[in-house]
């Protein structure tokens, strides 16, 4: 283990008890939302750039969860990246020369047996990941650029990158009276969300007590992302339910009351979405495509 990393706490079991709440979307009487309050009321936060972040691949803690690059969800996702790259300056992106060169910043791969595109991997991680020693600081070039310019990171990042570790699934369900409604479920994107590959991750933050050190609860720190996933009216109702005190914040993933220190020279620890790999994730499209 690198000397600047803390000894990780054991991750919690995947099947611990959770509390849920269901409510109807104020803007759509045929839209039911099921929200995992145990997750949303937790104080999980991204701990990238601190001793708590171990990285998903052993021996590469400074990659965080960006080791494999990110698959695209659709053509709109690809188009957004092209527009976002136009906003980057050399001081934002360590590998701008390589990314704008002949090989570009997107590569072809295969996902679930089908051809797919992902952000190019360069020197072992996503080409948009700035590494230690870069003057602009480590971390996602797109994320850092957005924070510096006052832009919501979800406006410039890949779908999978800004949504994780929120998991949204949707399905049509039939009520006893025969009426069909759309049910949206909001919960934690735990290891199982990645399919069989999730078990192979060396470390994963959403189940780690070491990442439960946020100043705000997830429903607050991820307000822009949850609003994008649910709509403004539904998020307002979710926020009311989270803040009225009637639902407890019980969780087996409680961290001792201290925050991990930042590593000097490692830039800003993100407070909203963090880039997350979609590699080896056989079930990811159901959760990340909008």
Automatic annotation (TrEMBL):
InterPro entries: Rv0495c. Pfam families: DUF3109. Belongs to the Rv0495c family. This is DUF3109 family protein. It comes from Rhodococcus koreensis. The lineage of its organism: Bacteria, Bacillati, Actinomycetota, Actinomycetes, Mycobacteriales.
């Amino acid at each position: 283990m690198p000397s600047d990393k803390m000894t990780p706490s054991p991750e919690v079991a995947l099947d611990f008890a959770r509390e849920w709440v269901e409510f109807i979307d104020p803007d759509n009487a045929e839209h039911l939302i099921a929200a995992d309050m145990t997750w949303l009321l937790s104080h999980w936060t991204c701990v990238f750039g601190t001793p708590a972040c171990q990285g998903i691949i052993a021996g590469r803690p400074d990659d965080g969860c960006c080791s494999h690059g990110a698959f695209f969800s659709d053509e709109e996702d690809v188009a957004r990246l092209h527009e976002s790259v136009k906003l980057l300056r050399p001081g934002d992106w360590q590998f701008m020369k390589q990314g704008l060169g002949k090989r570009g910043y997107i590569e072809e791969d295969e996902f679930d047996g089908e051809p797919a595109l992902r952000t190019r991997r360069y020197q072992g991680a996503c080409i948009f990941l700035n590494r230690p020693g870069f003057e602009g600081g480590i971390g996602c070039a797109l994320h850092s650029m957005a924070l510096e310019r006052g832009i919501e990171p979800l406006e410039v990042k890949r779908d999978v990158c800004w949504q994780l570790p929120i998991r949204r699934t949707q399905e049509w369900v039939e009520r006893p009276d025969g009426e069909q409604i759309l049910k949206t479920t909001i919960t934690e994107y735990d290891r199982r969300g990645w399919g069989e590959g999730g078990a192979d991750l060396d470390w994963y933050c959403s189940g780690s007590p070491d990442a439960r050190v946020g100043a705000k609860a997830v429903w607050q720190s991820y307000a822009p992302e949850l609003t994008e996933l649910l709509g403004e009216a539904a998020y307002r109702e979710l926020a009311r339910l989270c803040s009225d005190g009637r639902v407890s914040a019980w969780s087996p993933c409680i961290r001792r009351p201290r925050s991990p220190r930042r590593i000097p020279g490692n830039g800003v620890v993100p407070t909203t979405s963090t880039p997350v790999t979609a590699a080896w994730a056989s079930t990811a499209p159901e959760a990340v495509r909008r």
